[in-house]
Amino acid sequence: MKDTKPFKTYRQQLRILRARGLEVPTDGKAKQALERIGYYTLINGYKHLFLARDSYGNVIHPEKFIPGASFREIVALYDLDKELRSILYDGLLAYETTLGAMRIIVRSLLN
Q: What's residue 61's pLDDT?
């Protein structure tokens, strides 16, 4: 399938976000975040809580951000999600290790 969206620079992406009502800092940190994380992962992954909706709760098209929504809040949500995934992953690894050890013990008792 052919990609129909034209390439946009980081500056163009930030301009689009500003035009949709998102508060985007001009200190260069927003551009750095896009370079580090990527537009798709950061914006498309976490924008939904910040989008304006109609009285039925449906996202308004074309997309607009709710008043006061900021790029920093989206990055903070991304960072929180990343930290929670890390904590969960560590817990799952510990559980898997314990479960594997328990399997070995049970096998040795049954043999």
A: 93
